[in-house]
Design goal:
The complex is a heterodimer.
Chain A (H helix, E strand, L loop, with lengths): L1 H4 L12 H32 L1 H16 L2 H12 L3 H25 L3 H9 L4 H31 L12 H9 L3 H29 L10
Chain B lengths: L3 E8 L9 E8 L4 E5 L6 H7 L8 E6 L2 E2 L5 H6 L1 E5 L10 H12 L4 H14 L4 H4 L9 H13 L5 E5 L7 H18 L2 E6 L2 H7 L2 E6 L2 E6 L1 H6 L4 H7 L4 H7 L8 H6 L8 E3 L4 H11 L4 E5 L2 E6 L1 H14 L11
Parallel strand pairs in B: 3-8, 3-9, 6-7, 7-8, 11-12
Antiparallel strand pairs in B: 1-2, 1-4, 4-5, 9-10, 12-13
Classes of the chains: A mainly alpha, B alpha/beta.
Chain lengths: 218, 335
Amino acid sequence: MQYLLSPYNYDLSDPESIPNLFFQHLWLVGLTMLISLIIAIPLGLLAARYKGLYTPLIAVADVLYTIPSIAMVAFLIAFTGLQLPTVLIPLILYTQLVLIRNIVAGINNIDPLLLEVGKGMGMNSFQLFLRVRLPLALPTIVAGIRIATVTTIGIASLASLVAQGGLGDLIFKNIANGQLDAVVAGAILLAALAVIVDLLLLGLQVALNRGRNAFAVS
Amino acid sequence: MAKIAFVEASKQYKGASSPAVNAVTFDVPEGAICMLLGTSGSGKTTLLRMANRLIEPTGGAIFIDGTNILEENPIQLRRRIGYVIQQVGLFPHMTIAENIRVTAEIAGGWERNALNQRVDELLELVGLSPTEYRKRYPRQLSGGQQQRVGLARALATDPTIMLMDEPFGALDAITRARMQDELLRIQRGVRKTVLFVSHDVDEAFKLGDQIAVLNEGRLIQTGSPIELLTRPANDFVRQLVGADNTLRQLQYQPVTAALDHDAALTMEDNGETPTCDVHASLLDAMLLLLQTRSPALTIVDGTTALGPVTLASINREITAARNNQTEQPASITNA
């Protein structure tokens, strides 16, 4: 606990101080999620539209998800070295399964009656998407983003192994030199970050689920 | 000119042995409520959904205001037709106000302020307090209230045509009767041309200016409720409408049917004969006769006395109607 409470560890000029590592971690998670969504949204929309695409896409994402993260990082070191892509690529690949699956589930599990009603009042397919499909799918999509983000927060600690910093530094660097207090501090911060982000996204999810049962989506 | 005209309209599903709708031809005059009456599987819903092209006809044509809708853009077509269904289908993620606005918003051409005002107007029209319901969500409303909103939503763009697919079918008997009365009240003010699917004969008689009886995809008969009662095209219609049902005859036949024309000349009005309005039914007249113990009633249209009605003349009319059924009916279509 001492490590967390010591003001010495909050010196912003020190690149290894707690705030700097924390924001580095946050930045890595943010960047991962941004790129992940840029990839998953079009893929998800396509898989929702063209049913034949869904199974192969999910199969690929599933295989990638199965590979242990540490193995993939180690494997990529051979190609991208101790650089950002070495940790970014596995992180992005991991999020795809849950993101794509939830985007497709959200869009395709809409009560056909509501689509029929929208069509009956003269919505074109774009209006139907914007006013009916998307708002009804968003809570499920955000539920996917929630799971993916929390998972990413954990795995992003591997960035430390390829010299990319983050809260992983507190754990991995201090295990070697026996500073267990710092290791525990890293663990607490990682857990706290995950819980806070999870709650924030849950709040968003509930807000998007307005008019319906607040806890209807998992 | 007929507002809606079906001309040999047909729908043949692939692989089905017989068409769901088989060469149906009839007209709906402007401002009328036309009930599509039939058992389940009779093709009444299919016929209704062809009118806004949610189902594409495989044969024939459908005209609205003289234009063949099959040559029109289906999206534009649907935007000028109100559509109400049994399951209502309010959007759960929108408030009541948003649910009503959405029809007008997608049709376009409405200003924001005008739209807010329109929502309040419509809520008032369907009997829901705007201040209380505007911001609620559909799942906070009862089934009857939801259907009122469904009706308001369909009326939002002030369409001249309304398609209603058993809109009150899922409601309890009391709420259903109330909604039927509300619909008639609203219709007196807004005068829409309504196509209304129902399997309930009482509902058809209560609401319909015109009833189209369908069976196995074919149109059996069209006509006013009275025409169906007094001149059913065949046994199917007779059974369906209960033409042998004396009570129904009394309920729906106008009192003028039993007007005693011969007596009208000889009767002198001594000022003691009770009067009965010209729009009353035979049943009303009969009850009045029994209550007042008077031998006759004077039928009046405003201030003009049209003539007397007696229990004997009512009895004669009912007997005549029953005998009529054995004669060849006058208004058969496709029978």
